[in-house]
Each structure stands twice: as structure tokens, then as C-alpha cells.
Design goal:
The chain has 256 residues and is mostly helical. The chain has one domain. A two-stranded antiparallel sheet has the order 1-2. Strand 1 and strand 2 form a beta hairpin. The chain is globular, with a radius of gyration of 19 Å. The protein starts with a strand and ends in a 12-residue tail after the last helix.
């Protein structure tokens, strides 16, 4: 499977660009719906995407340094693959935090706008792994399952198509969050549900991966997914309990 379009354009990079463009359109639309200042959606993209890409690459390179130490300059070639999702989430989070402080915008609301778009971008971006022959799972030895999308032929064998499993999980997550966003009662509700949904799916799927980022015997993304999903679950349950407490006063929308 070629990872170049017309032998020139990186399909991985093209998919990332498409995800960013679609995110920008939806982000601007959501910012208008929530009556935030004009161009807030565009500002969110400009402030979140650069640090997201930088952190995504840095995160990946750090845990693959044994490979990149041979050719440090190749660490800059992010369009060839090797962008860690959690690094992107951390970078985007920091970018939006700076934007909220600079423009005095409600940070939880920015996170709520970003959450469905991030998981949509993750669903799209996983297909870049297909063309790059990465993010696959354990070897599939049963011929009855040696077909796509149950498995994918990579690294000389049929392997679990974990990139496809996660792409489907993320696409479903986007649909659910997009439907839920208008019913959310408190700022931050959408974001915490994003962490719960994505973290739970990644926790399971990462266990099937054959190319996980490792820290000793620990799968880094699996451990982080468990921590984030558990944290999100606790926060959601506490918010729900607080809301149902007798005499509780409803919170006002977190808008400027």
C-alpha cells in the first residue's frame, strides 16, 4: 500500500490537513452558536493546532528515541507518521488554555467545543496509519479472519486492524458527543465525556497493539487511558450527584 498520492503527496499529511480544515469549519460554527466573540473558532484552531502537532511529535519521539537517535533530523519529519494522539491532546489543551487567558474566554466552553472535533480528527487520522502500515495489532493466524477490515496485511503478516477499530470507535464517539452537546447542562460536560469515551476505547484497543509506545513493561497510552477514563468517570458522577442534591442551585452558563 503506497503512502503517497500521485507519488508526491503524503496521504498521512493530507488526512491531517483535511481533519484540521473540517475542524476549523465546525469550530467556527460552534463558537457562533454559543455566541462567543467573532472568529473565536478560527482563533482556537490557530492557538491549538501548532502546539498539538509539536507535542504529538515530541511525545512520540521521546518514547521512540532509541530509533530517532540514529538520525535526529528525522524526528522533524512528522508527515511520515509518528504523531501520538495524547501528545496532541496535551498540546491542544495548553494552546486553548493560553487562548482563554489571553482573550478572557471561558476555558471549559472552549474544551467543550474542541472535544467532538478532536475525536473526529482522531477518527480521520487513524486512516493515515493504514497507509503508513502502522498502528496494527497482533498477528492473525486464523485464515478465516485474514481479510480487511478484520485484519490488515502489515509487516509481512496479517495483523489485527486496530487502527480501524479505533477509527470506528472514535467516529461513533463524535456522533454521540455531537448529539449530546446541545443537551449539556454545565460547561465541561462534553469534554469529560470525551475523555471517558476515548479513554475507555483506547484502553481496550491498545491492549491488542503490537507497536505500542512502551515505558519498560508498561504500555504508555494504555496506562494514560485508564487514568483519564477513571478521572473522567469520577468527575461526571460527582457532577451528577451535585446536580441531584436537594437544594442545589443550577449553574449559569459559562459564557463571557
Amino acid at each position: 500500500m503506497s503512502n503517497k498520492l500521485f507519488g508526491v503527496l503524503s496521504i498521512y499529511g493530507l488526512l491531517i490537513a483535511c481533519a484540521i480544515l473540517l475542524g476549523a469549519i465546525l469550530c467556527q460554527r460552534e463558537a457562533r452558536r454559543l455566541r462567543l466573540p467573532p472568529d473565536t473558532g478560527i482563533d482556537m484552531i490557530l492557538w491549538a493546532v501548532p502546539p498539538a502537532v509539536i507535542c504529538a511529535r515530541a511525545y512520540y519521539v521521546i518514547f521512540r528515541w532509541d530509533w530517532y537517535a540514529r538520525d535526529p533530523l528525522s524526528a522533524l519529519y512528522f508527515w511520515q507518521g509518528g504523531l501520538a494522539i495524547y501528545g496532541a491532546v496535551i498540546g491542544g489543551f495548553l494552546g486553548l488554555l493560553l487562548l482563554s487567558r489571553r482573550r478572557r474566554l471561558p476555558f471549559p466552553t472552549l474544551l467543550d467545543i474542541a472535544a467532538p472535533l478532536v475525536i473526529l480528527g482522531q477518527a480521520i487520522g487513524r486512516w493515515g496509519n493504514y497507509f503508513n502500515g502502522e498502528a496494527y495489532g497482533r498477528e492473525v493466524t486464523d485464515p478465516a479472519w485474514q481479510f480487511f477490515p478484520a485484519a490488515v496485511y502489515a509487516d509481512g503478516a496479517w495483523r489485527m486492524a486496530t487502527f480501524f477499530y479505533e477509527s470506528c470507535w472514535n467516529a461513533l464517539g463524535f456522533a454521540l458527543l455531537w448529539l449530546y452537546r446541545k443537551r449539556a447542562k454545565r460547561p465541561g460536560d462534553v469534554f469529560w465525556r470525551y475523555l471517558l469515551w476515548y479513554g475507555t476505547g483506547r484502553l481496550v484497543i491498545e491492549g491488542f497493539r503490537a507497536d505500542s509506545l512502551m515505558l519498560g513493561p508498561v504500555r504508555v497510552s494504555q496506562a494514560l487511558s485508564a487514568a483519564l477514563a477513571l478521572t473522567a468517570l469520577v468527575v461526571i458522577l460527582r457532577r451528577r450527584a451535585k446536580k441531584q442534591r436537594p437544594g442545589a442551585v443550577p449553574e449559569r452558563p459559562d459564557r463571557p
